[in-house]
Amino acid sequence: MMPAGAAASRVPAGIEAVLRDPGFWGDNAAVIGLLVIGVAFSLLTPFFLTWGNISDLLVSASILVVLATAQQFAIVTAGIDLSIAANLPWAAVVFGLVYTGGFGIPAAIVAAIAAGMIVGVVNGLIIAKLRVNDFIATLGMLGVMNGVALIVSDGQSFSVSSPFLQALALGSIGPIRYFYLIAIVIALAAHFLFTRTAFGTHVLATGGNRDAARNMGIPVDRMRIAVYVINGALVGLAAILLVARTGGSDPSLQTSQLLSSIASVVLGGSSLFGGRAAVLGTVAGALVLTTLLNGFTLLQVSEFYQPMAVGIVVIAAAVLSRLQR
Q1: In the structure, what pLDDT confidence band is assigned to residue 21 with cuts at 50, 70 and 90?
Q2: Which domains does the chain have, with CATH numbers?
Q3: How far apart are CA 33 and CA 237, in angstroms?
Q4: Which of 98, 137, 225, 253 could form a disulfide with 126 if both were Cys (CB 3.0 to 4.6 A apart)?
Q5: Burial of 198 by CB count in 10 Å (0-12 exposed, 13-18 middle, 19+ buried)?
Q6: 3-state class of 170 per DSSP?
Q7: In which band, very low, low, confident or very high, does the pLDDT at 307 lie, cut at 50, 70 and 90?
Q8: Torsion of the alpha carbons at 136, 266, 114 and 102, rounded to the nearest 10
Q9: How far is 299 from 177, CA to CA, in rounded Å?
Q10: Rounded to two decimals, what is the model's pTM?
Q11: Cβ 79 vs Cβ 134: under 8 Å
Q12: Planar angle of CA 293, 251, 314, nearest 5 degrees
């Protein structure tokens, strides 16, 4: 007769300990969630696994990956950037203004990235030099940049169309769309920066313990400003992708990407308390949220429920962050 508990003993002790560790589920929530959601939607609708749907899903995810990577830089220093929701349409408006002003695509691209970086510089200076809390500083910039975007555009949207933008939005190298490539390059570059450079080590140390980082000689203020500048540049890049995909820029754009960018970072294994970066996990987190909304659309679930689903994921991500801590 099999002794009691023999069935449980078939699971190796090491694996059983891992499965019982809350940190394991926190670190791998995005990958596990992506697998579960993918299987569920593939069973619920025959359209989910078609190449056309997967391609559209990945294009949407690419923009979120760039924004989530931008958010990663703020969160890793125990900060947060709420101004993304206004910086994104602001940079898009600048792109539209420069392009429709006859300066061409290269100038519009530079202008959009510079516009995003300016917001990042202001955020960084307010936070690092004026010692204003990240949440309050970026919340204030959210309101400021919403107003600035409306003022400079006179509340008008811009139609932006060019062969370059069409090629960017629709072109590919084989089956790999340009949007995917841009998102992959940005994510890998951020991963390399955090794991293989002194700058990344200093940023992580700044987020982990600012006082200890200062005692080690790390220029904490400069690190905090730098991450918000990088954050702003990536938001500017995301704005260019958004203009290429939609064919225009709208200063009153109401985007849900703010919540999604935060949830993607935390679902991916990064900590809201700083000092921990998981860029590749952030990519998986962005895929989870994009897949969730894509599946809802295919199942014709009312759009009213979609923000609620994202909100639930944000709360779940916060709980996972606490488990990781």
Answers
A1: low
A2: 27-324 (1.10.3470)
A3: 28
A4: 137
A5: exposed
A6: helix
A7: confident
A8: -110
A9: 26
A10: 0.88
A11: yes
A12: 30
Beta strands 176-177 and 158-159, pairing class: unpaired
Paired strand residues for 172: 177
17 by DSSP, 3-state: which? helix
Q: Are 71 and 234 in contact (CB under 8 A)?
A: no
Show the tokens assigned to 287: 């895929």
C-alpha separations of 151 from 62, 94, 205, 246 in Å: 29, 12, 40, 22
Q: How far apart are CA 14 and CA 37, in angstroms?
A: 27
Give the C-alpha separation, 279 to 49, whole Å. Answer: 26
What burial letters (b/e) apply to 56-69, b meaning 16+ CB within 10 Å? ebbbbbbbbbbbbb
Q: Which amino acid is at 323?
A: L
Q: How far apart are CA 208 and CA 214, in angstroms?
A: 11
- Please, what is the average pLDDT of the chain? 86
Q: Contact at 8 Å (CB) between 57 and 267?
A: no
Q: How far is CA 123 from the centre of its chain?
A: 18
**CA–CA distance, 278 with 297 (Å, rounded to integer):** 29
3-state SS class at 177: strand
DSSP state of 158: E
Cα–Cα distances in Å, from 1 out to 4, 8, 9, 222?
A: 9, 15, 15, 68
List CB contacts of 28: < 8 A, sequence separation 6 or more.
269
State pLDDT tens for residues 28-55: 677 888 888 889 999 999 999 998 899 8
Contact between 255 and 98 under an 8 Å Cβ cutoff? The reply is: no
By C-alpha distance, which of 14, 59, 30 is closest to 267? 30
Residue 188 one-letter amino acid: L
**Closest Cα to residue 57, out of 291, 254, 246?**
291
Percentages helix, strand, coil for the chain (3-state, rounded to 5) are 75, 0, 20
